[in-house]
User: Fold these one by one.
Assistant:
Number 1:
Amino acid sequence: MSGPDEFDWVSASGHRAKGRRPDYFEDPALDRLYSVVFALAAEVSALRERQNTVERLLDEKGTLRREDIEAYEPDRSAAEERGLATRAYVSRVMRGFQQAVEAMEADEPPVADWVEKLSRE
Amino acid sequence: MASDLPPAYTALTRHPMMPQTNHDEAARFNFLAHFNRFLSGDIGRGNRIAYKNRVLPKFREEHGRNPKHRYEIRDAMNRDDWHRMWSALKRNSMEMRQHFGRQVVLRQLDALDAIASQYNTGSGLLELDSAISQPEYQTAVDIHCQPGGYHGGEREGDVTVGANYDVGLFATTGGALGGLNDGGGQAVVEWAKREYPDWQPARILDIGATIGHNAVPIAQAYPDAEVIAIDTAAASLRYGAARAAAMGVKNIRFIQASGEDLSRWDDGSFDWVQTTMFLHELSAKSMPRILAEANRVLKPGGLIFHVEQPQYSNEMPLFEQFMRDWDAFNNNEPFWSAMHGQDLKQVMADAGFPQDSQFVAGVRAVVDPDIFPPAADGEEEDFGRAAIWNAYGAWKSGALNKVEAE
């Protein structure tokens, strides 16, 4: 436990930057929600990477020490495998945004228009 | 495909001053490198599509003409659903980078301060001056959304902001600046050595050096030269001087001073005055003052060289200008927009560098391809952070260093 005079690095780390933050959405709850969702996305990514590290260390040594996890540095080939996995993970989390871009490119009519048209033709 | 992936954070070069990261801290930076690449590469093009498909047509309908200025595009795009979502994502990425970096640094701040103090006490590379005040353009907002900007801190005499700047840059740039985040300085050195292989500058001034990541490569490339790296921010210099000492660099000194007042140096004191990604951190009134001071302390025949993103010009499409402006309004870079909109050649001419002495050169980050993939460029350029820069330079008229070198 930290005493009253001790530096609280957790609290201090979260301080805002000086300068008014832009509002990106009409509803401030949405701005807050974005911050939560992507912080969680980062944590899940870190968890996945940690699990991969544990598996690799166990594969290699058959046993595990926590300091080995903290000190683990993938070689180039392992880094590429893990990098590809992270890229694929980000792509899954961000699917809605990716597909929104594709939809803007396609610029299609609503499916209901087709429903109506095919019922006639 | 694998070469498109950003390198693992652990591929970064750990000089002794660099904060230590544990497993998950490095993993969070890995996520950010991929997340940033997704925002600029995979979905960044959504902004252009939204503009062409709906924002521009609507603007034309309302105004009966095309936009005349990047700010008109900004106002229109800031009402577009897609651009708002994309900006919210990017802003959050910046904020996470700061938060992640600060957790790394602040949990080990005692150790970092002790290491810095040890290096700085022994090396003689650091000279602070408490009489130097922080200019408004550095304190109005925290630049890059880094709490404390370049100058603040958590406690007196600490290295928080310098350490946080250094520990996160590798993630923000996806490793494109190299293992030591010094790709900007390496690019300058590569240019100077290629263009003027016999030039041996004896005294070099780097203005706005922050942690010296772009000044140190110059000192290393010209071991017989004396490099003076100045900044108003003691918090960045403390870290930078310790970093340089930890890397074994001896021919550089970090001095707390303002580029607006170089009176401690006589006329003609330097062969080379360098700024790297610095001019956009100033203000309309301070930039000409700094350039005039730089002119004064340069020897006749000396080189002034500024590395920046390209200036906005009539040839640059307004939409590109608008995208390049994003950081000004969303990442606390308040002079970015105005600076890039200026006629820099005229500003430099007014400061004493006639237009016919000026030149523009392209410089490119030097990256080790064995460890890091080449920086992305072209269409997928990450506006504002790309590892390709324009350099705006001039040779001060007089007895010509330049001619001797050629």
Number 2:
Amino acid sequence: MNEISNGDVKLTRRLFVRGAAAVGFVAGLGRFFSNGSVLAQANPGQPLPDEPVEATMKRLFGNRTISYGEGKIKIELPQIAEDGGNVAITVEATLPVSGATHVSHLYIIADKNRRPMLAKFSFTPDSGRAFASTSIRLATTTDVRAVVEMNDGKLFAVSKNVRVTISGCDLPPQG
Amino acid sequence: MAEVGRVSIRLPSSIKPGDIIRVRTLVIHPMELVQRDSQGKIIAKNYNFIHTMTVSFNGKETMRTEMTQAVSQNPSFTFPVKVDRPGKLVVTFSDTTGKEYAGQAEIKLS
């Protein structure tokens, strides 16, 4: 940006691109922190930057305490996943999805993935039950957390360790 | 991958009024992985992956899922729906290229 404001420097295309990218990044960052959404809405195809799991938890849940959800949430994962690219996960909460206090969201977070946030399920009373099952990619042997967010802001979490033999995330480096 | 975007939905064989059924759905999609350069930095570009799945029953949204690339290729989902009357179940997947893939199933009560 300094280079552009300097009058002596001709505004080459490269500089312009660099400046535009910086502006875009800052704008994106602002949006990213302001709406607290899981995915950047304006350009959903752009991946989020790498972050440690603590940062993800902080971004999603702030400083709220997370209670241990044993007995409330059941998480099913294989003990050993031979192919990290396709790991079946089933999460079921016995908490209600309708009534005064109900489940609003269910997050799946893998601690050692470079971008730990995997999926967010939002339930309504018409779902009938807080249940979700899907297939996920895991980078390496990791804990996988299932976090349930209630409508009153309470959080419950359980986690399970999975041993991953072949990484599901890494492509060979490009270029 | 000529079949990209094909959505299949499986319903339980018999559904009674008031049941909470589990619906299985599968969509054919590459769910493109993040590419990195030799320094391990993410190559910035528009990656093609599904970011949202919405389920609606008789026109009313019953569930929504937001996801990242950490969901497998050709992802499958199982989700609950509370059924008290017959109707149309629509599952819509939106990907980052702006395309939408929808599958629908007719729920009949027995």
